[in-house]
From TrEMBL:
Name this protein carries in UniProt: NADH-quinone oxidoreductase subunit J
EC numbers on record: 7.1.1.-
Source organism, top-level taxon: Bacteria
Organism: Spirosoma profusum
Family: Belongs to the complex I subunit 6 family.
Keyword Magnesium belongs to the record: no
Length: 185
């Protein structure tokens, strides 16, 4: 209890911002799971991604924040919304969930939570800690540092990943291409 009180006494403006973002993130994440309308669920997921980008900015990882907004909140969420609208879900088409299904999901979720807590407690002894007296480098999460590292030490894996993405794109186009005599479904 005294550790918690000491924690709140040492909070600065950034600490309060972190706690506020964390609270909003948790409420939005709960909204993703509990929303009955899939559109509201996707909108709550977008808000969760924006809050996570705020966390990245607080951690001085501007590149990750920008990529999270562009890729996840932008492209992936548009794809989710398009899929949901394309499926045209109706209330009368939904199957009602039985109590057995609900209980099974609660049991599986609880077991997963217990397993994750056990893993985190076992791994927490192995996590290296950072000394508060260590020097702070304000350029750590900047795109310039990431680019220098990618194009010097990790150039081969970076180029291999780009070739893999090119092959995946060509494969997706070839799989999606219809032949002249194919049926349209």
């Amino acid at each position: 209890m005294t550790e918690t009180l000491n924690f709140f006494k040492t909070l600065t403006g950034t600490g309060y911002l972190f706690l506020g973002l964390t609270t909003v993130t948790l409420f939005c994440a709960i909204g993703v799971v509990t929303a009955r309308n899939p559109i509201y669920s996707v909108l709550a997921l977008i808000a969760t991604f924006f809050c996570l980008s705020g966390h990245y900015i607080l951690l001085n990882a501007q590149f990750l924040a920008a990529v999270n907004i562009i890729v996840y909140a932008g492209a992936i969420m548009v794809l989710f919304l398009f899929t949901i609208m394309f499926l045209n879900l109706r209330k009368e088409d939904e199957e009602s969930k039985t109590n057995l299904t609900k209980m099974a999901s609660v049991v599986v979720g609880g077991l997963l939570m217990v397993m994750l807590i056990t893993i985190f407690r076992a791994k927490s002894a192995q996590v290296p800690t950072v000394s508060p007296n260590s020097p702070f480098d304000s350029r750590t999460g900047l795109v310039e540092q990431l680019g220098n590292l990618l194009y010097s030490d990790y150039i081969l894996p970076f180029e291999l990943a780009s070739v893999l993405f090119l092959v995946a794109m060509v494969g997706a186009v070839m799989l999606g291409k219809r032949e002249a005599g194919d049926r349209h479904f």
